[in-house]
Give the backbone structure.
Amino acid sequence: MSAKIKPPAVVAELGRPETPEETAARKAQNSANHRNRQTVNNLVYSLIATVALVAVIVLIVPRGNPTSTAPAVDYAAVAQQAQGSEPDRLLVPRLPSGWKSNSAELRTKTADGVDAWYIGLLTPKGQYIGVTQGFNANDSWVSDQVNRTRIAGTREIDGVKWDVYDNRASSDAGNVKYALVTSAGKSTVVVFGTAEDAEFTTVASSLADQLHSLGSPTPGGK
């Protein structure tokens, strides 16, 4: 007795058996769907691995106050290398122990056309004071340095008269909470930052003799 041939299965959606072409198309579609699912799964696994790696890096990298761990900048040495390139001698504040510099540079070819010698200082109390010496500066340059605020008065520190800009009551003063401005020779000097009066006095006093050597200091370059 010969074996019975099993008839093709009826596909419910079609109401009849599949043709060979339809069977091939279904299998090809199933393969494509499988590959797509694998691709999506691989992307998800890659994303999870990346996030996990970033989390590990964040956990193992030491954090803290970057200004307290960064090596101090020898601004006197930087000034020595740049001396003679500007019409006045670059100012070098002589400060007591506990003070630290995190930046020092002679800024040339600036957008405002004013060359400037800049020193960034960290005070013993962890505050910031910047010293900027602009050469042949104009009123617009001074206004930019003091965050476009008005003069609040004048101070005399070791024979040098300074214009005072006090922005401590402002919420958007940035690093220019307080500033002192004077001029001598071809230089306009701006001492600005977030420190208290006594620390500003220390910096201004350390510059007094050098300012007198440039000429007769006058407030604000007037």
